[in-house]
């Protein structure tokens, strides 16, 4: 499967495009910069995002999981950042390409470890998309999150996010503000300030 091949899941294809765009836009000096993920720099966010994509793939295929704990990223990449991202996205794209839209029990790395297909792929897409936003904001890029993608991700977020906030996967919900668009509403639900700047 080529790096841009369709998975037949638009939400995941769009989220991967967002992550691919954000990673490709990081300048050489930007990998150590602070991000909206407190205590993690850009490299660590990429490691986490890539590890999660591999984790979703492994849950479906039974193949190997991420090489290190995505929740304790070392800050040292094993290779070129773009290729680290691409390899992880290829794995999750290939795995979800095998999942039928009406599958009712798709294995996932997040509790309860099985979801209907739409929620499972939405969870994988949500992870890629929000970390694409983190990387883009940290490195002065435009937001890679479109209102359309944010709207598509919100129903999944409302199901899966609250149970994993205790892990530190997402911060507490931030209050909505006047003028928030769909992207801002999603980000605040995920505990991110849509006006965050480095």
TrEMBL record:
Domain Mycothiol-dependent maleylpyruvate isomerase metal-binding per the UniProt entry, residue ranges: 12-136
Sample GO molecular function, one term: metal ion binding
Cited InterPro entries: CHP03086 (IPR017520), DinB/YfiT-like (IPR034660), Maleyloyr_isom (IPR017517), MDMPI_metal-binding (IPR024344)
Matching Pfam families: MDMPI_N
Top-level taxonomic group: Bacteria
The protein's name in its UniProt record: Uncharacterized protein (TIGR03086 family)
